[in-house]
Write a structure and sequence with these properties.
The chain has 296 residues and is of the alpha+beta class. It is built from 12 helices and 9 strands. The chain has 2 domains: 179 residues, Regulatory protein AraC (Jelly Rolls, Sandwich), CATH 2.60.120; 103 residues, Homeodomain-like (Arc Repressor Mutant, subunit A, Orthogonal Bundle), CATH 1.10.10.60.
Amino acid sequence: MAIHPYVGTTPARLYVTPERPIHVNRVSESFELELHNHEFVEINYVSEGSGFQHIDGRVLPVTKGDLFYLPLGASHVFRPSSPAPGRKHLIVYNILLHPSIMRRLAAKFPQGDGMRRFLETASPAQTWLHLRDQDGSFQRIAETLRDELTQQKPDYLLLAEAEVIRLFVLLRRSGAIGGAPAAAAAVPRDDTLERIVAAVRERALEPLQLGELAAAAGLGERQFSRRFRRLTGMTFTDYVQKLRIERSCERLLATGDSVSAIARDCGYQDITFFNRLFKKKTGQTPLQYRKRRKPE
């Protein structure tokens, strides 16, 4: 039976309220945060470095200038390119918007307007969006928002709301709202490979052969490998290992099973190799991971 990743929900009250509906932070992404969704709208802006955005079952390589709009209910998590501290860092601005401000902004537009529908609609009816910052406008908005919310000068919330409106206007002008979905426009779809990747996610704990999957896609192994990496940002082997380690992390926290039993169930008969791979991917041994995370 397939084990699906656990998706936690981040409560709105931790960051935003109707009285203070906008929050901005600037974080260095790591491997600590798990896949999650939110009780608020989130806009991510990659400010420095490179890595990956895991979003609603897809893995997208990201670099400075990538912007994502995540409606209510969209699940995601960022990962830097390397688990080693200080190497290939990934710095992201997160703009968090309480549902109350989304409703307030939507009311400024007439019924039936594409912008109004966009602001009021949650996932999956509203897809997440992905586009590139062509001239630095989105970075300037993120920086201004953070400065206003940190310094809290007179009328800072009014200025912050004005910057949020400006951000959405720029999204609309880009064609992301009311035009072709930016997620599809920014990342060309590869439907054949997406079906294969979905199958890999479902069967990650089973023995998987690259050659068989390539044949199922009607491709040679080299072409399959190139297209697989272009879609996921990883080699086939790295992607399967990532999924298996994620499943083993879930088992470590959800059960009291031994490490060797979890390794075996996640596709690894060699416990030494599993321990070495687990530490490489997470920075901790399986027992350290269980001990440090389970009380939380």
